């Protein structure tokens, strides 16, 4: 379709296909950053007649996704994943409307500063269980990190003690996560998303394998929604439910309408899915960064030794006295943001910005990676430098911008869709970083290509994570070995 509006600039594309073949599937945030030097901070692409607008600067992202959040908070339509499988009922893919509002209202009533002491105690307890696992089987650290994050989130959302990753409840969620990643992966485009009427074509027609896929994935989605919720519902009825988000929701509204219960079920099971993968990838990045940059590790350890001492392990309450460790956590969000392009938004009406039309229904992609590697905001952006946040407050760049802003303002998304789990994620990351560094030395990262170096690049299409690697995780002293073992037993 010809469009006479003045769209933002972008590379010329082919008829019908548009730019679909030009956008790389792997690490597209790097290509977008390169192209922004030619086309500017606001770029337009098209693929099969659909508009995609990529925002490459803090100003453009904040102007649109924050200040005009009222019209930039929808998600793009997705026929297979969103409508046929039903992921659009999940908060993260939910279209803008009453269901999203209801679900976000439930989440913000649950995740508030008031409940943080309880959540922090739980996170500290799970961390003490993680340390002996890392000490005894360091070669399985991927598995341990996964168990750690999932166990923290399960405990918060359903009061469930996850023994290991093969527990049936964990398996259901893992299957849903895998299916979700598969159908939403860039490059796995399904024709039904371009031609939605195909969903009504009978199953026997060749080429409709996507319908069987949708049925299977939907059945798993409903299992992941119902099994944990029904477990807690039964516990509440018997008066034995441990405290959890799901318990609170059920007790608060014991006789919900079917519509209310549907949102409650989806929201609680979704927190489980939304919280896990992002946090796991950030922790993988932490181990990688520590192995590559031993001097950062030493500096944080010196601070932990001085403030916490050798007789105990760090707690959340130490955080205010650990500025370097805090800065290191900030640098983790910046150096390799796990969501380099965030989650796409969609604009609900035609809009004008910087002299261009942003057309209604366009997918809006915030290039968070580009902001977090903008040398005008973060000098020397490719180097992990926690001390950048310790410089005297409010250092200004030539154009008056504050230098080295807190990366959490970008890493957790924007406007009305900002990540509602960010306080939980951030505390979990801090307590893990502080404990691992107090207890262990991390070193010698090795990927399939050989020893990793500071030039080894992260990989991914939707998420950015280090290439698969092994590393050494060794107790810092005999005394620490004993402390970890006894703290683990106590926990
Ligand atoms: C390091 C860990 C995490 C990172 C980097 C992260 C990042 C993000 C980002 C970038 C978004 C999209 C925001 C946008 O559309 O602009 C998001 C959405 C979301 N996150 Fe997180 N997240 C993390 C952990 C968590 C945790 C632990 C939970 C829950 C316990 C959670 C729950 C959610 C939910 C429910 C949404 C959907 C919000 C919506 O679409 O309205 N996240 N997160």
UniProtKB/TrEMBL annotation:
SUPFAM superfamilies: Cytochrome P450. Keywords: Heme, Iron, Membrane, Metal-binding, Monooxygenase, Oxidoreductase, Signal, Transmembrane, Transmembrane helix. Coiled coil: none annotated. GO terms for cellular component: membrane. It is a single-pass membrane protein. The keyword Heme applies. Its cofactor is heme. The keyword rRNA-binding does not apply. GO terms for molecular function: heme binding; iron ion binding; monooxygenase activity; oxidoreductase activity, acting on paired donors, with incorporation or reduction of molecular oxygen. InterPro entries: Cyt_P450, Cyt_P450_CS, Cyt_P450_E_grp-I, Cyt_P450_sf, Cytochrome_P450_fung. PANTHER family: P450, PUTATIVE (EUROFUNG)-RELATED, P450, PUTATIVE (EUROFUNG)-RELATED-RELATED. Belongs to the cytochrome P450 family. This is Cytochrome P450.
């Amino acid at each position: 379709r010809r469009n006479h509006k003045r769209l933002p600039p972008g590379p010329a594309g082919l008829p019908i296909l548009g730019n679909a073949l030009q956008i790389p599937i792997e690490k597209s945030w790097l290509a977008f950053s390169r192209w922004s030097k030619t086309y500017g901070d606001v770029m337009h692409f098209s693929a099969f007649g659909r508009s995609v607008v990529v925002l490459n600067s803090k100003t453009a992202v904040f102007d649109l996704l924050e200040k005009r959040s009222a019209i930039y908070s929808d998600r793009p339509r997705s026929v297979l994943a969103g409508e046929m499988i039903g992921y659009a009922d999940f908060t993260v893919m939910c279209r803008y409307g009453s269901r999203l509002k209801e679900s976000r209202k439930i989440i913000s009533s649950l995740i508030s500063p008031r409940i943080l002491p309880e959540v922090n105690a739980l996170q500290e307890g799970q961390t003490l269980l993680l340390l002996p696992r890392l000490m005894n089987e360091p070669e399985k650290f991927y598995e341990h990190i996964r168990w750690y994050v999932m166990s923290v989130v399960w405990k918060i959302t359903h009061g469930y003690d996850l023994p290991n990753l093969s527990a049936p409840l964990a398996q259901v969620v893992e299957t849903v996560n895998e299916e979700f990643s598969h159908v939403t992966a860039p490059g796995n485009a399904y024709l039904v998303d371009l031609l939605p009427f195909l969903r009504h074509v009978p199953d026997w027609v060749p080429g409709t394998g996507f319908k069987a896929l949708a049925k299977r994935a939907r059945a798993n989605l409903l299992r992941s929604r119902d099994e944990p919720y029904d477990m807690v519902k039964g516990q509440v009825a018997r008066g034995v439910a441990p405290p959890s988000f799901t318990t609170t929701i059920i007790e608060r509204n014991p006789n919900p309408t079917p519509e209310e219960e549907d949102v409650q079920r989806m929201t609680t099971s979704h927190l489980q899915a939304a919280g896990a993968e992002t946090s796991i990838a950030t922790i993988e990045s932490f181990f990688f960064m520590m192995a590559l940059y031993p001097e950062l590790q030493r500096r944080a350890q010196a601070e932990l030794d001085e403030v916490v001492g050798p007789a105990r392990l760090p707690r959340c309450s130490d955080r205010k006295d650990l500025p370097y460790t805090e800065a290191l956590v900030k640098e983790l969000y910046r150096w390799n943001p796990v969501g380099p392009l965030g989650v796409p938004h969609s604009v609900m009406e035609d809009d004008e910005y910087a002299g261009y039309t942003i057309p209604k229904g366009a997918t809006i992609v915030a290039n968070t990676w580009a902001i977090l590697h903008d040398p005008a905001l973060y000098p020397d952006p490719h180097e992990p430098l926690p001390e950048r946040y310790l410089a005297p407050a409010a250092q200004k760049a030539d154009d008056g911008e504050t230098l080295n802003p807190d990366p959490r303002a970008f890493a957790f998304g924007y406007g009305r869709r900002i990540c509602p789990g960010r306080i939980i994620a951030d505390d979990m990351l801090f307590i893990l970083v502080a404990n691992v560094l107090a207890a262990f030395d991390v070193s010698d990262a090795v990927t399939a290509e050989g020893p990793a170096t500071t030039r080894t690049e992260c990989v991914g299409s939707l998420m950015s994570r280090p290439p698969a690697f092994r590393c050494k995780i060794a107790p810092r002293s005999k005394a620490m070995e004993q402390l970890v073992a006894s703290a683990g037993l106590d926990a």
